[in-house]
Amino acid sequence: METSQTHENSIKLTSTEDGIHLDGSILWLDSKHTGDISFLSNPQSATSKLDSRVIATEETIRILESFRKKPKALICQYNRPFAIGPLNMELLPSGVGLGGASLWVETNNKKILYAPQLQPQNSETCHHMQVRKADILILSAKTPYNADANISRKREKERLIETIKKMVSANERPQIFCEPYATGPEITKILSEEGINVAVHPNLFRILKVYEAYGSHVGSYIQHSIHRGDYDTLLKPIPQNKQLRRVFPKNPVISIEDNQGPRLDDGLFRKIDERFYIPSSCDGRELKTIVPKIKPREIYIFGPYAKDYVRQLRSLAPVVKALFPRHLPSLF
Fold first, then answer.
1. What CA–CA distance (Å, rounded) separates 214 from 209?
2. Which residue among 7, 86, 191, 291 has its CA within the 20 to 30 Å range from the CA of 184?
3. What CATH number did the domain enclosing 308 receive?
4. 142, 155, 95, 98: which is closest to 277 by C-alpha?
5. Percentage of the chain surpassing pLDDT 90?
6. Residues 167-181: pLDDT tens digits?
7. Residue range 95-118: average pLDDT?
């Protein structure tokens, strides 16, 4: 099932469980299975099989290919306008990991900015976030509006470094679980710069090699194997099943929480020793400072917390509406 949202003289959008469709065109947004063409905002949006033909950055496609995925792709560079029929488009850096992008579209004398993830805080491992003026702005609301209220991303990184150093000094070898595409490279870099010897899971190792191939400096690291013990801490992707099952009891377990990926729950064999909140993208409070730069006339928000965001952002545009499939109402 699906639902459409529109405003008089506006572009019509249809939200489904498989992305958003720009009605009257072939363009979808972060769809995996449609038969038309879909913009892919980041590698994390394609954790499952991709049937759609996709528009994406070269970096995003290379990360997917490192995991033996071969999407049918139209590869585009940042800030290089291109057109498909009546759609004039351009990819802008979102600031969320290597290859992460927003999509700017002009059609029927309307300018649209699809920005499901934005990160204004520079991680130094990817391009800085860019936004552009648009008539219609499409945002996501996957976490509560003030998900990281009273939490400083900078202070959390400082606290993480301090915690790891204390554990290493105590001859402990902590295992850190994090979102791999954007947060993993950033954490690898900041720990390495502090003189901490970092080993990474093979999946994160593949991602880091793509980062380095595109000139990103992610610090020093080794690929983890059971035959190597010359490291202080081990970085792993958060398991998709959210269960912590195979961690040796002697190793402290650290979870880096992210507002877009899965949360690491206490598993069957042990609890989480420390949690840190270092999100890969900004929350609603930061969005409120970004939106005025875009100057939209209409804002459409999708995701489980869409209505919460609508209440908070309604003063920023004449039209602010939630956009979600009819059978999947927002939580608030």
1. 9
2. 291
3. 3.60.15.10
4. 155
5. 64
6. 999 999 999 999 999
7. 96
Is 303 found in the same domain as 289? yes
Do residue 315 and residue 269 come from a single domain?
Answer: no
Report pLDDT digits (tens) over 102-113: 999 999 899 999
Helix (H) or strand (E) holding 14: strand 13-16
Q: What is the mean pLDDT of the chain?
A: 87
On whether the CB atoms of residues 22 and 11 are closer than 8 A, the answer is: yes
| Alpha carbons 311 and 306: distance in angstroms, whole number | 9
Nearest to 292 by CA among 134, 167, 172, 140: 134
One domain, residues 165 and 307: no
Residue in 141, 126, 227 with CA at minimum distance from that of residue 184: 126
| Angle, in degrees to the nearest 10, between helices 183-193 and 202-213 | 80
Q: Pick the more confident residue, 325 or 181.
A: 181
Say how far apart CA 140 and CA 132 lie, in whole Å: 17
Question: Which whole-number Å values give the CA distances from 305 to 137, 283, 310, in the listed order?
Answer: 17, 11, 9
Both 16 and 103 in one domain: the answer is: yes
Q: Which pLDDT score is estimated for 33? A: 85
Counting runs of H as helices and runs of E as strands, what totals does the chain give?
A: 6, 20
On the question of pLDDT at 331 being above 50, the answer is: no
Sheet architecture: strand order including 175-178: 222-223, 198-200, 233-237, 175-178, 253-257, 274-277
Residue 137 sits in which domain range? Answer: 3-147+281-322
Q: In this structure, are 248 and 291 located in the same domain? A: no
The predicted model scores a pTM of: 0.90
Please list the alpha-helical segments (H only) found in the chain: 58-66, 153-169, 183-193, 202-213, 284-294, 306-313
In whole angstroms, how large is the CA radius of gyration of the chain? 20
Measure CA of the first residue to CA of the last residue in the chain; give whole Å: 20
